[in-house]
Amino acid sequence: MRFLLIPFLLLLCCGGVFSQGIQKVLDDMAVYSGNNPQEKLYLHLDKYAYTAGETVWFKAYATIGIQNLFSNHSGIAYVELIDGAKKVVNSMTIPMVMGLGMGDFKLTDTITEGSYRLRAYTNWMRNADEKFFYDRTIQVANGRSDNIITTTSVRSGEKNNIYEIQLKSLTGVPLAKNPVRYEVISDGKSVERKRGSTDENGNLTVELSKKYSNAHIKLRFDNFEKIPVNKLLKMLPPEVKNDVQLFPEGGKLLENKINNIAVKAVNPKGLGIKTKVIFKVGADTAGVAETNDLGMGVTYLFVQPNSVFDVQAEFEDGSKMELVMPEVYKTGYSIAVNSQHENKVFAQLNLSEDLVSQKDVYFVVHYLGEVVFVSKQKLSKDELVFSVDKKVLPSGVLTISILNDQFLPIVERPIFNYNDKDVLPVVLRLNKTSFATRDKVQVDMQIGAEMDSIRFGAFSAAVVDLTKIKDNPMLAPNILSSLLLSADLKGYIENPGYYFDGTEGRVREVDMLMLTQGWRNIDWGVLGEDVKPKFEVEKSQRISGYTKKLGRTKPEPHAKVQLISTKNYMDFVDTTSNEDGYFVFDNLLFPDSIKFLISARDQNKGKNNIDIVINTLEKPAVGDNRNWADERWDVNAAYVDQINLSKQFFAELESRGLMEKAIAIEEVVVRATKKKKVAENSSNLNGPGNADQIITSEELETCPTLDMCLSGRLLGVVFNGGIPYNTRGNVPMQVVLDGMYIEADQLSMINVSDVESVEVLRNANYTSIYGMNGGNGLIIITSKTGASAMRSYVPKGILTVQPQGLHVNRTFYKPVYDAADGVQLSRDLRTTIHWEPSLVADKEGKASFNFFTSDGKGKYLMVIEGLDLTGRILRKVMELEVK
């Protein structure tokens, strides 16, 4: 570790040593820090916005503590793709080896355009607030099955908010006189369903009660190609105004003292705006705070006794807002910190005259209990100044805690420190100064400095064509902003990359961020207590559960339990349940889509009269998006150029057999056949009977099991191991039983006599309503009773389970233009030119990779990120010129 805990007993202050009382507190803080190491996750993405059909590539970095050392704490991480309605549309489990992992999300042709969240966490991270998970908003457009752009506006009516939504093609042709079904979703619940129609200009008018704030409107309609399209639009009420908040430094304004007060001003979309905030006492101006482009500003005020402040915010458009002055205290403490000095951090503790005494007060700088500096003074005057050398402080968000003689915090304040020694130096050498199209680029990396004894490190690299990127990549989250800033702050941080772009003056602006954000801190109330974390460290996968006496809740103790892989029945593990019937198979590593059999027999007679109950992993709930200000209304409209470019590139890949064609409506030959009777209580979202194929109960009468009965009867569906696969792509289909999503291999467990009908949905005109769940097609099963769970035969003492396994990574496509063989593209229109997730520097700090440019000319952006074994962070950005 580069930063060691200070040997507190050797610290001298004011000529004396620390008392036994404060030493115990410092020891308790050290124990707390040791028992609660803070794990952080960061995902390096290949780019910043996507279209349907593309893949989100990422490299995961897990670090531990303020030193950002590679975490060997957790062996598993969870990554989720969450839509605007807070629904997890895709998730994966990735293995973490020495703090490193990788994965990818394939964005299906039917994904709904919109703003999505990428959320990543470990089970151990759940012991802290969800706000400290990795959470990033990305934009996803759809030009595969959608091809419709929306333009949304809103105005306030007498009773309702009136939304005008225009629907038109990518070329601007209105979708006129077109039926539209829409649903209003508020707080995750459907509150209204209606039908409407666009006018001759493609406009749809939706009136929404003003009581539904921040609601979503889900649209469903057919596009020009008669393919069903889903849209999810976030609706902001028009009456929302600018918001200005005041933040006294340290949380209090103290009378008869100079106080710093910060200002945060945002527009209705949550983005910072320039504002002037004027503090007046009578006719006199006591202070003025002017905010920057990110809406943050700060000023100082001298608060005289019994002063009455009038506070007013003036916006650039000339409008004004009256603000409420925070409470002013006659007695208490306040703090003023100067972290902008080149070498030191100064903190002035202000206290009212009645608190001046000879009692001890302690200045502690720490990271969640990991103390990096401490000093002591006596409350001998009403202003005390503490200081600490920046060289002894690690980089990141630290907490200044001032403790009284009872060792309780009287005032706290977060600070941000940035040390160049925590940044890993790198030298990049290219084989050329400029490149032609389809030219080979060789990148050689030299990591670290000559005095470094160890230069091992792990890195990832992404190269994108800047001419095809809409957003400014320098403002996006990066490894520095995530590990040093966002991972320890609450709330939304606008343009986090802005604070690490190397521009002078960011020290002052990041300090304003410290004044206006909540931060991660320790719970002083549990120091010295033996508090066991709720969530354990996951080193590997596990399958656990209970053995119970057949048909009863009473445990079956000491049962012999066996876990058998259905991929190889000779591959099994044995264990014995404990007194409570609990059993666990741990230290497992298995990929996704693996099915297991669990069998159990009692300890005495070896009989299987046992019920097996499996524990399921309860994922954390999806709360509000902390980065909601990054969500966009009309994503397709904003990224129409990217959609058109991707459509051209996809067409090239399809012609070369490197990508399947976009889902289209297949031709259907209509014959005069008798219409099959379908269950009226079918959960088919398109309506009962609206399917590519229907199998009725009469056709199932002679079959022993449902999977055997359906095998060979379903058009475009093949069965492999009892699982239905869509022949379009050979991908497993989603099975829906009475409205519930179930595992495909459970078909064999469904009692045929209980089935009323089976509906097959393969084409986009039926599957698109299911979003990502419908990307591979669906089989809709309706029971005769319509119950949520059907009667099925479950053998005694045996159970089939298919837990979520580890994600198996796809391979990034890399064209090679100097090879004599291989597939050659006639038009190379890649946006992500290269993705290299597995760069490793050797003991001499050397690493290298290469790639080929595309047909795109202009500037390319290469971003390399990663860490070395000492926790130094690398972020290197370089532009390439392609002519």
Automatic annotation (TrEMBL):
Signal peptide span: 1-19
Pfam family, one: Plug
UniProt keyword Transit peptide, yes or no: no
Keywords for the protein's UniProt record, in alphabetical order: Receptor, Signal
Superkingdom field: Bacteria
Domain TonB-dependent receptor plug as annotated: residue spans: 722-777
Gene3D superfamilies cross-referenced by the UniProt entry: 2.60.40.1930, TonB-dependent receptor, plug domain
Protein name: TonB-dependent outer membrane receptor, SusC/RagA subfamily, signature region
